[in-house]
Amino acid sequence: MSARLLDGKQIAADMREEMRQEVADLTNLGIVPGLGVVLVGDDPASHSYVTAKAKACAETGIFSDDHRLPASTTQDDLLALIARLNRDPRLHGILVQLPLPRHIDENAVLLAVDPDKDVDGFHPLNVGRMIAGQPTFLPCTPHGVLHMLARSGITIEGAHAVIVGRSQIVGKPLANLLMRKNGLGNATVTVCHTRSRDIGALTRQADILVAAAGQPQTITADMVRDGAVVVDVGVNRIVDASRKKGYRLVGDVDFETVSRKAGWITPVPGGVGPMTITMLLYNTIESARRQV
Ligand code: GUN
Prior knowledge:
Blueprint: E1 4-5, H1 8-28, E2 34-40, H2 44-60, E3 63-69, H3 75-87, E4 93-96, H4 106-112, H5 124-132, H6 140-151, E5 160-164, H7 171-179, E6 188-192, H8 199-203, E7 208-211, E8 229-232, E9 236-239, E10 247-250, H9 255-258, E11 264-265, H10 272-289
Parallel strand pairs: 1-11, 2-3, 2-4, 5-6, 5-7, 7-8, 8-11
Antiparallel strand pairs: 9-10
Helix pairs in contact: 1-10, 2-10, 6-7, 6-10
The structure holds guanine.
């Protein structure tokens, strides 16, 4: 392997150490930052995320109020719970884990979260503020990617960033943040997706290549320029009988071959994932700080 590792796990640990102090300072002022987390259904990956979020909150001194509801939960019951969390003065942030079961209208749920507690940055008001360049909660995965790059000493300004994937959670907001006129932006941005022609011709132009397609093996070595920075947002479970759990996690990038060609690369797990959770804590603390 010739690429250097973008060590999201270490960077996240450093940031959380700094946050622990901020939480302690707020707690001394009588404000314990609090996060409400709602998970509906049995998706195993979502359960793992939510467990990791609760653990990260506990380690940082943030109060977390977890609600795990059965897949049969009605939309009305979910909306009633969100209304209750909106009113709960102990909570500065609310997160509804996605995806939701198919009988629930995701847009209705995201609209129901109080924009002032929307630490995911998914409410249309906050999406609008982000695009308008106004202060708001920034979506955690794209924001985490930017901090990981910056803390690794990678220059974003002027770079050609190519994103593969146009999801509402990652691709779209990341493209927007990379374009913003500030220290974490000022990149030239290309977004590729399933209907793009000759994706390899586009990805080979990337100084910074972000894989956020949700498919293993989306990025192979022939699609990467020598020395490029490769950020793998994918988290895919693949069957592996040699593992105790019966599966292992892989990203969207063929790590084995791409790591021989890239200049920098994120591992999966231990790359973007810990950064996402860290930015969730960051937004929750920021929301609590607004009360001071
Ligand atoms: N599902 C996958 N990523 C996320 C995220 O960042 N926030 C929420 N709420 N759900 C997700």
